[in-house]
Amino acid sequence: MDWIERARRMVAYHPEAVDFIRRASDYFPVDMAHIHLLLRLWVEADNMDAVILPLLHEFNAGLLDEEGIIDTNRGASRQPTAFASLSDANTEEIVYECFWHLNWRDSQALSVVLSVNGDGVFQVWARGEASASEHRIGYPPSENALKDALVAVYVAEQTAD
After folding, report:
1. What is the pTM of this model?
2. I want to staple 126 with a disulfide (CB 3.0 to 4.6 A). Which of 50, 70, 99, 149 is the partner?
3. How many domains would you assign to the chain?
4. Residue 80's domain spans which residues?
């Protein structure tokens, strides 16, 4: 997506982002200045849809006989501050997230997560539900890095006790 289209999408998402921040403020101490970060996150997630969704569909067809359910959603959470010093070990920050999920059976799932913190640091990782495995992918993610992480999480999910 070029920079002009990115600007259009950010303007289009703005009312939704304001509403999201207001709803999140019921649960977290959020900063309205984070709207720009949220807009960047959502536009980046739009870009990543073109890579992640086909991979999840391929995974579902090739390994799960189309029995999995693919879903996407957005959220916010409090997480330990990435760069906290030892004296600030209990410091938390608000993190905004976009998720791509592939769920199968009763409790097995793999997810790709794109997040941004209040400092504008983006992260991407894959994680498993039953196995609680996590694999950092790096940002921006390459298709091969996504595939490697999805395979690792799938194996962990299929072999979890």
Report:
1. 0.91
2. 149
3. 1
4. 48-159
